[in-house]
Amino acid sequence: MTSAILQAINGVSLAALLFLLASGFTLSFGLMRVVNMAHGAYYLIGGYVGLSIAEHTGSFALALAGGGAAVALGGFFIDRFLIRRTGENHLAQVLLTVGVAFVIGDVALQIWGGDNLMVPAPQQLKGAVVLPGGIYYPKYRFILIFLGVFVGIALWLLYKKTQIGAVVRAGVDDREQVNATGINVDRLFVMVSALASFLAGLAGVAGGAFLTLYPGAEWEILVYALVVVIVGGLGSLEGAMIGALIVGLLDAYGRWLLPEFSYFVLFGPIALLMIFRPRGLFGREH
Amino acid sequence: MQPHRPLIRSSVAMLAAFGIAAVAHAQSGPIKIGVLAPVTGPLATPGKDMVEGWKMFWDQAGHSAGGRKVEYVIADTTCNPDQALTQARRLVHQEKVHFMVGPLCGHEGPAVAQVSKETGVPLVMDAAGADVITKWDRTPSVVRTAVSASQIGHPWGEYMYKELGLRNVTFIGQDYTWGHEVTLGAVRTFTALGGKVAKMIWNPIGTKDYGPTIAAIPADTDGVSAVVVGPDRVRLFEAWFNFGMDKKKKIYGGYWMHQDVLPQMDDRAIGMIGNSLNYAAGLQTPENIAFTTEFAKRTKRLPSWFGESAYSAGLWTKTAIDSIKGKVEDRDAFLKAMRTVTIKGPRGPLRMDDYGNPIQNVYISKIQKIKHPVLGEVLTNVPFKTYENVSQFWTFDPKEFLARGPYKR
Amino acid sequence: MDRARLMLLVVALAGAAALPWIGGPFWTGLATQMMIFGLLALSVDLLLGHAGLFSLTHASFFAVSAYTVAILQVRYGWPTLAAAPAGILLGTALAALFGISVRTRGVYFILITIALGYVVWGIAHRWSSFTGGDNGVTNVPFPAVGPLAVTSHTQYYYVVLAAVILCGLGYRVLIRSPFGLGLRGVKASETRMQSLGYRTGLHIYVAFVLSGALASFAGVLYVYYNKFVNPVAASFPVSVEAALMAIVGGTGTIVGPFLGAGVVLGLRNWVSSFVEMHHAIMGAVFIATVLWAPQGLVGIAARVRARLKGRDG
User: Labelling A227: which of A15, A106, B388, C175 has CA 20 to 30 A away?
Assistant: First the structure.
């Protein structure tokens, strides 16, 4: 019973991290139809930048902000000068962004080396919380869950309650319509793309403090984020939330109950879902 | 970068095919060694340690052996078997090396052994530890200077039962060949003495989250044994403390906290048993003190077992080459020398068993903070229990051991 | 085919036949690899270049057939004549199963094939009692058919060369057939083809299975060359690289994928011997191809030729 509860919290905390990463991915697809395979590399480099900031300043909050900001800036240039040039050709985008990810990964390897590094979380966040029933659980992961929920609510409010959100939603549904209304779509795109990159960098710092950072982490995390987005439906914020929870819990319970088939448990149902509901749970027809 | 030599090269190859006459000629030239190591990719850090240990040995030895100059070519395998295979073939065919050393990654081992088998060019297997190479799938041209996986597992199982007094252990093992063989080697000796396995938990390499593993440890277990590699080592360490397990249970490293990962850990590690391994950087022998001091001067860090292993592979090959007066063209003589010479490396006395695997000490070590003359305060593995001259077959009869087949989960 | 191209082909063939004599074992080995991966890239390109579908699961068929051959030959002692067809058959069967993914299009197809690819890789990696885990299956012999046995890598090079030429010819027939025309029709406009009465779904499904069969064949050639197979063969990077090869060389052509395989493998093996950052270089090749040479090397060659012609005339 204790194990079952622990696994549930594990699943949710992984889900929180995956949501940070997947929400940006799904938003930039929803609005700009951009499939960015470099999203995992954004996560990694954001984590590394945050790590360096944390080591120099000792501040985890600065690390989070700095890691996110650095990636937002880099993401802006990559978006403007590379991805934008592919138009809506997904094939070219996938290829181009895989290339970008290779370059980022190699540059990171040269700067930070091949060791697995951990972003130092502040002392107050280390250690365990004792839950009723004598269950110990890492404090940091609760904070991560809070962060995920906080970002989720913030995005949801932005998306549903503000004028920007309304335009973005309109853009997801019908881009020509938005263009016709005379709104500066270009600036909107830049903002959403920067937000997506920022979230990826932020996720890198947050994730780097418990999953560690190392060469290859960009692909491992990207695959999970992709699965989240597939399950939830490309372009859907609610989908990313639900998808992250499903993937996080499947992963935790799968590895606990059926360790040898954990990849099956995760990818098998998702492949099936894709075949019968290719747009995911919340995806719309495009 | 590639001069136009293909014609000359193929004519040399033809000459070599036609007669042994070429052998006598070539002997005046330098001895050429191909080193296969993952200098880039996921295991770049151990790979660089390996290269550093190897370089350092030959720098000290003046780049000569058996009266001949020694040259080496380092080829990057990136920890990918396809790449290891291609690079091994390049070393053999393009660089015309006399023998190869490496590779590091377990799954590259069979690929490179394949090239040695095809071409007869000897392979001094350093670091890659798959049991089969020196047990069920032996190749006459392959000898190992590092360690066979289960060789360090067997003493570990006995240690847990006899010295730690454990009876009901949860085993956390990395789910790939090396992890299986180290873990199941320990399980075998542990259960043979009457110990019980509370639970086996296998995690693939690169398991992101050790939360589920921690949560699956049964309440009635009296100890946890960990065999983890790569980035998983830090994650298990952090998860252990973050879940408050340090207040509930004891965890011991069968193969866990090597020198290369200690900088990522902290004072919470002090006092933990980190490894049962054929090397510990804190070993207080004159050979090891000299080795670690020089290594620290050159790299500003202490060597992992990969660094030591490459250094000893250098010493081993040089001793063998010296004993045959530099005639490495005679492959059989070289291999025979590798199998018969004995050396004293930083990790202790070494000699080859009849199956081409070293007989060596296995050290159980604890993490301690020491004051290093070069590096200042550092965490390192300090050995406190030594199993001397351990064979890859432990105390079992080799024939019976071989008849039983490999460790498989 | 005009005379210049015929000449080029003859020269290329003569060069290929003479390679073991000029290049020595290393280049012969590398060329064998290039042809095998070129064939894999060609199989990816049947979907990519002709039907407009970007599959990232072709390493699955490649690996399943390689594993099948390796396991049957090494563990059960099957002869090549039985093991090789079994490999192709199983790989193709998997393609028939995965083929249901053609119910999706565009980016959804890309993403679902990634997920499917991970399932196969996960099985190869984790079902170690059967697949050998990370160590894979080793000691695969050279192929032998009755008394005809391959005994050296040079001989095997010629076997692969012959196989690749045959595949190339067969492929040419296929893409010039009404079937191939239909595929390109779907690529151009699926709805138009539907209104013309084509069952486009079935059409693409058949193409997917055929393409899987070709990838499986490449897997057979691969395992006899490498003499071992492990989970890396089924991994995501293999699928990505196969697609990259097709695009770098030029999609929708036959020579393109092979040229691309030459460039990619050449870069990896040659550059890595003196540059540490070869991943970054590979990445730069990806980016440059997409931005400046979307038609690949074949496209560049065509442009150059067009310009030359323009100047002459």
Answer: A106
A227 to chain B, any CB pair closer than 8 A? The answer is: no
How far is residue B14's CA from residue C192's CA, in Å, rounded to a whole number?
62
What's the CA gap between C160 and C173, in Å, rounded?
A: 20
**Residue the block writes with tokens 């351990």:** B390
CA distance C115 to chain A (A): 6
Domain ranges of chain A: 20-228
Whole-number Å distance between alpha carbons of B161 and B155: 10
C-chain residues within 8 Å CB-CB of A98?
240, 244, 283, 286
How far away is chain B from the Cα of C40, in angstroms, using its nearest Cα? 15
Q: Judging by beta carbons within 10 Å of its beta carbon (0-12, 13-18, 19+), is residue A179 exposed, middle or buried?
A: exposed
The span from the CA of B104 to the CA of B106, in Å, is: 6
Residues 6+ apart with CB under 8 A from C93: none
Mean pLDDT on B356-381: 93
Contact: C23, B13; criterion CB under 8 Å: no
Residue B226 phi, psi (nearest 5): -120, 130
Q: What is the pLDDT of residue A235?
A: 78
What's the predicted TM-score (pTM) here? 0.83
Of B5-9, B330-334, C67-71, give the lowest mean pLDDT range. B5-9
Alpha-carbon distance values, C117 to A70, B12, C61, C98, C102 (Å): 33, 45, 9, 10, 15
DSSP string, B226-248: EE--TTHHHHHHHHHHHTTGGGT
Q: What residue type is assigned to position B158 of the chain?
A: E
pLDDT digits (tens, 9 = 90+) for C255-291: 999 999 998 888 877 766 666 667 788 888 888 888 8
Q: Which domains, and CATH codes, for chain B?
A: 6-147+305-357 (3.40.50.2300), 150-277+363-391 (3.40.50.2300)
**pLDDT of B27:** 57
C-alpha A276, offset from chain centre? 25
